[in-house]
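re: ur msg from earlier - yeah i can do the magnesium ion complex, just paste it... oh wait u already did. ok heres what im feeding in:
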Amino acid sequence: MPSASGWQSDKEDPVLASASSARIGLLLGLLLLAGCGQPADPARHRQFFALGTLVEVTYYGIGSDVAEQASQELEQMFLRMHAEWHAWQPGRLQDTNRRLATGDAFPADPELLPLFEKANRLSILSDGLFNPTIGKLVSIWGFHSDERPAGPPPDNSALTALVSQQPSVTDVAINDGYLRSSNPAVRYDLGAVAKGHAIDQGIGRLRELGIHNAIINAGGDLRAIGRHGDRPWRIGIRDPRGPGVLAAIELGDDESVFTSGDYERFFDHGGRRYHHIIDPRTGYPADTVTSVTVVHTDATTADAAATALFVAGPEHWHAIARRMGIRYVLMIDANGTVHMNPAMQKRISFDTEPADIRLSTPL
Ligand code: AMP
Ligand code: MG
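and the outut:
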């Protein structure tokens, strides 16, 4: 575990220093603490824009050519996935949504089918708090756009009407590769889980290429495999209310760290912040939490769980985390109180010890 003073020296690390000076530090919610203050970091770093964000891939123990080739492959793979899985641009997901609205059975897109199956399972485990079928709600809020939404918030009556249609993954039958929706309100939005799925696929590809020590970090959400030489990978968790880092964590051989935060996509209107994580029960942005970080082996599960626990909030996250098989949770609520389970507390070290920490019972 890095101590607070160890963390200070990490700030001098060239990777972190260049990251903050180049605005990258703002984009990467979770910062890679690469070199322990050593001037020459033996890890190799590659960056590109894909999945709607800056992706940083870090490698240890491979040559420059291999790193370059792997990064180019990942970039192409992620660009293609992002285009195809957009809920609001022509592509496989939009086609699927159009056909789901008809109520007829149709053959599922083979690339998307495993993701639908997994997202549906995760949604059920989350008690519907992670609900990938609320595309209509996300759209009416204006978060179905690459532009930053400007508001104003939608009419309450329009939101109530959409919520009352109760779209759910249980409305979608998947049989022998065919999809059919019994609820015309179902529209898939994979925004809460697609990045995780893409990172899982990316890690799979790196392993096929013989790369076993790497991190794929997409805008602060990441999966790490192997180690940084003779020590574990170590990363920083972004402070949801400041430019810096809240805490540091060392990762095991294969772990994903995903954060859902109200600072990622939002607009301010009438003195209030409206952000992109919607409570499917109310139609409004979930308002009890500012950020949730979870650690889990599988990036897709971690991604869905961070969103679900954000909606669950400080009173109800524990039961949902348990059901989703999550063992490490860090949540900052709207008052700045830090909620954690004891296993998470043992693993992380805060830059500045929070004034108010609430420990849950073990998960
Ligand atoms: P994340 O940043 O992973 O928490 O995902 C947020 C994105 O998922 C939003 O931009 C929406 O596209 C979508 N979304 C919002 N609320 C939910 C929800 N309750 N369940 C599933 N997806 C959601
Ligand atoms: Mg998510």
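cool cool. The first strand starts at residue 30 and ends at 32. ping me if u need the other ligands too
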